[in-house]
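INPUT
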Amino acid sequence: MRDLLEEVVQKGLDADASFCEVRFFEERSNNITVENGVAKALGSGIIRGVGVRVIVDKRWGFASTNIPTRKSVEMALKDAIGGARSIASQSAEDAKVVDAEPNVGTFAHKVKVNPEDIGSEEKVKAMLDLEKVARTYSDRVKDTFVTYRDVLTKVAVCNSFGTSIEETTPRTYAYCQVIAKSGDNMQIGFEVVGNVAGYEIIEGIQPEKFSGEAAKTAVSLLEADPPPRGTYTVVVDPDVGGLFVHEAFGHNSEGDLVFGGQSIVSDKVGQKIASDLVWIIDDPTKPNHGRFIYDHEGTRAEPHMIVKEGILVGFLHSLESAAKLSCRPQGSARAQSHHYPPIVRMSNTFFGPGDMTLEEILEDIDLGVYLSGSQYGYVETQKGQFTCKVEEAWMIRKGELKEHLRDVAINGLVLDALRNVTAVGKDLEIKMPGICGKFGQGMYVDSGSPHMRIEGIVVGGRR
Amino acid sequence: MKNMKEVDLITPVEKAVKILSKMDLDFFDVYASYSRSLNIEILGNGISEARAQTDVGIGVRAYKNKGLGVAFSQSLKTKDIETTVKRAVSFAKMAQPDPYFKGIPGPSKAPDVPDLYDNGIISLTLEEASVLTKRMIEAASEVQQGAMYAGGVTGTHSKGYLITSTSVSVFSEKTSIMAELSLNYRRGDDVGSSSEYDYAVSLAEIDFEAIGRKAAQKALEQFGSKRVESGILPLILTPESISSLVFSLVGALSGESAVKGRTFASGYLKKQIAPEILEIEDDGTIPGAISSGTYDGEGVPRRPVKVVDKGEISTFLHNSYSAGIMGVESTGHAARRGYSGYVGTGPTNIKVRPGDSSLEEMIAETKSGILATNASFSPNMVSGEFSTTIDEGFLIEKGEKIHPVKNLMMGGHILDLFKNVELISKEGRTIGKGYFFPSIKISQVKLAGK
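OUTPUT
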């Protein structure tokens, strides 16, 4: 396949492209759905094709095809060139990429147990066993839902710098969702495990800490109160901290949003933007869900320091954003599939650890809110306003966790919140395997944090 | 899209059906689709990229002893179709019986819903799309220069073909055009940002200049935003923010989750949730509308359904699976996830009946309150609780918009918002020739601010 990609790159250059990139993408997935003790559906799918991207007449053109044959890929090249030429007469910023050293290599992430070697019957049984633990946790458990998924992704990239790489990445997941009911009150709990890994990740699940935990959360939330409204000192657990660093700051550090004028920190490199305690790192080389060796432009992945002791020191880059912001690319461009061009994405994003224990972080809080477990979040990068929805919370009174709270969300202005970080724990955890959406593309990411204390955060609620 | 090469969907679907017919299954269906999209992307100072995407795939849904097997492929080659069929069938035989499954629908005749594709979009070129995009940006720039932009224009032409073991055979063809512009202006550390969009079946329905102008005007209005005090105040939702509230309710009334008692609205069928002035209809038969179709994803005819009638929830939206659980007819709301083989439930064109007030009256009659011009409710679909940010809004005092707000959240139960509907405007916004949302005043909501 790479021979074909390299030949089409050459054809792109022969047709006056100043840059040409041809990318093969294949993703094979299997899934199982268990609901209330019944493995009611099994499924599988194959996505496969080629995306072609060119710069012609200082404009980007992109085209994709599901048919990875020479004829179709050459047709996609023609479409991409035609696309770039079609916008050549429109006023816009010139397209450019940084001069990159070529990378050549093939990498396959190793697994201990290949999901393909495990029969569907065995996977079904494992999911049924997990589901049973949730269903039998309490008579207040009303509904249980467990899914299994394995995905094998292969990406090959060739470009006009001479880069020719291929990477094969297996990912395996289990998800459990439990609904508990008491009268008209219904609450939900969930747990997920997932990583760049094989079936060993499923074999390593301790049911009581997975589906049992999801059931425990759902049942315990039946007794929880809605949160009081207002501005509080909050303590975030590693999941909420992970959601916060990803949504509130991570997106603002993406190079394409920076040069596109969509980031609130675009002009703040070298400036103090956060408390001295804040370190923010994005590291695709860590063994977490956002791991990769080469990005989808073929750049070798490296750890990226974004904020060091509260000072903004860098952004995440594609070949384009590195060119426009005069930086060196460190491998942050990825695409959901062959149907999309690579854009700047986070990988494993986290707050660096401090030196405090949770007890020390809590001890001098007279009144606050402890936030635990993440649901979802979003940020308006251009305004720097973020919202994070958390799974559950507790009131903090005189340094101790008291009333259990449900349906809690927080809101704030990114830079205010980062300046108001007043304590950072030493207990960094990265365990939020998820899919992040941006510009209509989903991408595998992870994030995490140690426990952290932030002053002046708006907590929304119905009380 | 003049250069697009037509893809034959009929032959691969029939090939799959032929194999499946010999497989001793209880039920099956095969759906293949093809789409071609042209997209002009905007980022930074203007147009940033031109894209062409061709997507094709085939999905199989197979049932054996009430167990479901699903498989899909993006390849229509005979060998890949055979593999896809084989996998779906082996999965169906391995799956356990779903006690709720009753079967899939048979054929029904329905009058064609016309005007669902536009030759102007079918023949659109990237060059033409870039001119439309440029018009949108220039209109924004004429309001005020100096913005940074994001967004784009996307035209799509799609076709689908469905055959089921119950003799359903449905071919569909649609076009769509979507235009979106987000922009921001900066004055020192102050940011004025907003966005505007529209989508339709045909090019003639979209006013690209109006999108650009509105986006710029809305962004300029956001300068000088301030925090406001926490409190309990009236809330006025414009069409842009009411849509999210209505979709939250309709989502909670849809399909398997609603029927199985997993949503906050599951227990409210035939119950009054709002004053009689609130009526919500779903109508997938409106000619030329963005979410219309003659048939749903299982080949059941679309039909208008009053979801909320005089404040009372009158029905859930069903596909055949959820309808089977309740022992009622499908309402024609089966929604396919492309060619993945999976079939869920989803709304079509949602219309909220206009009232007799107006946005101006609502503001003028509000002593102290909040006007939310952009908010996304996203409630907990199980409990119905929500806690969300007012992304764009204004403080109202003594009947006038005072200043934009920031850092302001609202919270409560989604059904309390419906219970507290006070006024509905007669004017509103029509989207895609099918959706209609007026402005709505809610008598009180709990706000978390300073």
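end of record. Chain B has a mean pLDDT of 95.
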